[in-house]
């Protein structure tokens, strides 16, 4: 384990990555990058149709690349340049690769099988999976997760914006 890189200590630091699968909104991806930078994530992975910032040798149409980068940069506040991210074409293969690297794959989703986030004791390596803002994590990807966790509502609304939910989950994963 390594120091957290921000407070000069050498205290152990949990390894955390986020897998953002089929996130529709560039603003949500930008917010995830900013939140990931804040919590010292190792990497944000974008899969499916999630937008992502421009990078060297980016194969996208330049107009689409520039539009997505401009949109997400508004919420990322510079984190689109500093937060490590990668794009992967096959989310299932990515999850298997992360698992092979010692990560526990944890889906953040309202599901009968999910445990309350506050009851979850995270291991030293966590890959947090986030899904589509409307439909959440698909059943196939839920099945590929080692664990599902959920944020319990205390009001009438039972869902949160994906980037807000990610922030809450990352706070718990980082400090638990």
Beta fraction: 15-25%
SSE arrangement, N to C: EHEHHEHEEEHEH
> What is the makeup of the main sheet?
7 strands, parallel
Low-pLDDT runs of 5+ residues are 1-7
CATH top level label: Alpha Beta
- Averaging pLDDT over every residue, what do you get? 94
Query: How many structural domains are formed by the residues?
Result: 1
Rg (CA only): 16 Å
Q: What structural class results from the helix and strand content?
A: alpha/beta
Q: Any idea what the CATH superfamily is called?
A: SPOUT methyltransferase, trefoil knot domain
The third-level CATH topology is Alpha/beta knot
Biggest sheet strand order reads 3-2-1-6-4-7-5
Q: Roughly how much helix do the residues carry, as a percent range? A: 25-40%
Determine the number of helices (DSSP H or I, runs of at least 4 residues). 6
